[in-house]
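Hey, can you fold this one?
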Amino acid sequence: MQRKGATTVKAGTAVRGPEGTQTPRPFVPPVGASRGAPTPGAAPRIEMNQGEPEHRHFPRAQLATHFDLWVDDGAGGRRFSANLVSVNVSVSGAFLASTFFLPMGTVVRTRFALEEGAAPVEARAEIVREERGPEEEGRSGFALRFLDFSGQTEVALARLFLGMRLRAFTEDYLKSQRARSLPNELERVIDVMAAWELLKATTPGDPWRGE
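Sure. Predicted structure:
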């Protein structure tokens, strides 16, 4: 017999109560998830935003990674927690595959890592959209819009989209005569930042998409 108030979920989700200490489960595609959903551990595929409000004007990465999700009870505990897998992620939001749903506008806390062994990104987020299509018609889950981050962990998200281009730009610039003439590391960092901002202001491409 199911206890009153208990939450029932299907494969691919792990729900825990306030005292739960369950570790993330191995990935199992949730019922209703898209057949074309990304595979955990695969290199993320960067795409232009296709109109989803949670991504705003940022590109998104097709990335399957575990999201720990919980709702605070206002007294230092948790009244709900779960482990879900992302379908896509951007600097401003994410879509999580799920077969259960929370009310629109619910504010949650979340923690996730972009790669194995990496420091986690920690954020407060709001549920802004849901999809409940059957498996044969599309994915099932809900979208988060990030409200704020803890400990500047959002930088890890920015590096997902900008890291390779920033590394190439910085390595090239530090070989220049100007960079070598600067007196210390701090001055070189400031100079690289100024050169990057100048590049953005004088070229029509979008650095988030590597254009």
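The beta strands are 14-16, 45-47, 60-62, 66-72, 78-89, 93-97, 107-112, 121-132, 140-149. Let me know if you want another pass with a different chain boundary.
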